[in-house]
């Protein structure tokens, strides 16, 4: 998940991080809610040098939570 956050922040595109999670997490659909919750947690971390990554985590959490077939 951290690499997906990195990719999202690096390319400024949630699709890249979302595609990474879908291909690398074998049970993506079963773990989707857990991942969204963890990404929300990462997005709230008060680490000054992680501001852009925290924003990417928040955006990715929304993309994961709203993902559907």
Topology:
Layout: H1 2-11, H2 14-24, H3 28-43, H4 51-65
Written description of the protein model:
- With about 70 residues, the chain is mainly α.
- The protein has one domain (about 1-65).
- About 75% of the residues lie in helices and about 0% in strands.
- It has helices spanning about 1-10, 15-25, 30-45, 50-65.
- Helix 2 packs across helix 4 (about 50-65) and helix 3 packs antiparallel against helix 4 (about 50-65).
- The model has no long low-confidence stretch (mean pLDDT about 95).
In short:
The chain has 69 residues and is an all-alpha fold.
Key descriptive features of the protein:
mainly alpha; 4 helices; globular
Multimeric state of these chains? single chain
Query: What is the overall pLDDT average?
Result: 94
The gyration radius over C-alpha positions equals 11 Å
Strand content: under 5%
- Ranges where pLDDT stays below 50 over 5 or more residues in a row are none
**Helix/strand order:** HHHH
Query: Helix proportion of residues, in percent?
Result: over 70%
The total tally of domains equals: 1
In angstroms, what separates the terminal alpha carbons? 20 Å
Largest sheet: none
The tally of strands reads: 0
Report the principal-axis shape.
Answer: globular
- What count of helical segments does DSSP give? 4
Structural class computed from helices and strand pairing: mainly alpha
